[in-house]
């Protein structure tokens, strides 16, 4: 559980710090090119999910994020594969990072907007989104190569970190 907690905490810290810097140094009216035709910095307050989906259902997305965090943490407590524990920590930090925005920047209950600032031209996201995407890719890879999240004959308490 220590590795999961460290990965999740690292992801949350990187996400929060990057969002606070974006809020301090970027404005809603300007865009700063980092890599031409690939990456710009542009502040956006997103009520929805990725690509703006669900912008009228912010509270539903918030509830789903809460459920996701609980399920991810529960699975991580039982996981014995170090690769899965790291991937689950990344997924938790991504879901929790955006959930924090929905709570911290809410006008009502769970209806806040997520701070997005990484403009790829086709989508605007944040560090939490990067952690979610990496976790998703990691999960696909782990499933594809047949890495079980729980090694037979081992318990999470007996994990020696050799995986």
From TrEMBL:
GO terms for biological process: proteolysis. This is Lipoprotein signal peptidase. GO terms for molecular function: aspartic-type endopeptidase activity. The keyword Transmembrane applies. It catalyses: Release of signal peptides from bacterial membrane prolipoproteins. Hydrolyzes -Xaa-Yaa-Zaa-|-(S,diacylglyceryl)Cys-, in which Xaa is hydrophobic (preferably Leu), and Yaa (Ala or Ser) and Zaa (Gly or Ala) have small, neutral side chains. One of its GO terms (cellular component) is plasma membrane. It is a multi-pass membrane protein. Its main location: membrane. Keywords: Aspartyl protease, Cell membrane, Hydrolase, Membrane, Protease, Transmembrane, Transmembrane helix. Pathway: Protein modification; lipoprotein biosynthesis (signal peptide cleavage). Belongs to the peptidase A8 family. It is found in: Cell membrane. It comes from Bifidobacterium fermentum. The chain crosses the membrane at residues 57-76, 83-100, 120-145. The gene is lspA.
